[in-house]
């Protein structure tokens, strides 16, 4: 998906043991993602993907909470968040050989985004939990939004899906802060250690 921007803090992480990738934000009532008996019971080659699924769900929840608490967020925040979620949905559809229900740049309300957050968490969690190591290099052939056909491995598609959202969540945080809002940290390290990275005001170290 394109990484370009088109023209146009509820709670802190819970304290927890370092390395607990199932850590959730305080006050976050979203259900844990379905896994095959828990992330630790998955094959080692799939465990890192399970951790990234958990981070994606946690991060999307926090962006949603930040937008809900913002007084007058810039319109680009909702546009970018809808793009992040629709892109997750489109890649999942490609992985499953299904037709997507959203374009990659949809016009969604915040509540429609909330519904897509939950659907993506459920479907992505179930998909990764069912993966076996020998499936990761398997090629998936798809046609992108520009009408070009490609074949990419399941593992590469999933890694792109995770990294794409990380990029745009940073843009949303910047736009929220520019408008006077306070974005919730979505760094992976904030999830696993239960404390956010230092900000520019608090220090320069992560």
Give an account of the 3D structure.
It is a single chain. The chain has helices at 44-69, 75-96, 110-129, 154-178, 188-193, and strands at 139-143, 149-153. It is mainly alpha-helical and 206 residues long. A two-stranded antiparallel sheet has the order 1-2. The chain starts with 43 loop residues before the first helix and ends in a 13-residue tail after the last helix.
Largest sheet: 2 strands, antiparallel
Q: Helix tally?
A: 5
Distance between the termini: 29 Å
What percentage of residues falls in helices of 4 or more residues? 40-55%
Q: Which shape, going by the Cα principal axes?
A: globular
Order of strands across the main sheet: 1-2
Number of strands: 2
Order of helices and strands: HHHEEHH
Strand content: under 5%
Provide a brief overview of the structure.
This protein has 206 residues and is mainly alpha-helical. Helices cover 48% and strands 5% of the residues.
SSE layout and pairing:
Elements: H1 44-69, H2 75-96, H3 110-129, E1 139-143, E2 149-153, H4 154-178, H5 188-193
Antiparallel strand pairs: 1-2
Helix pairs in contact: 1-2, 1-3, 1-4, 2-3, 2-4
Keywords, separated by commas or semicolons:
206 residues; mainly alpha; 48% helix; disordered N terminus
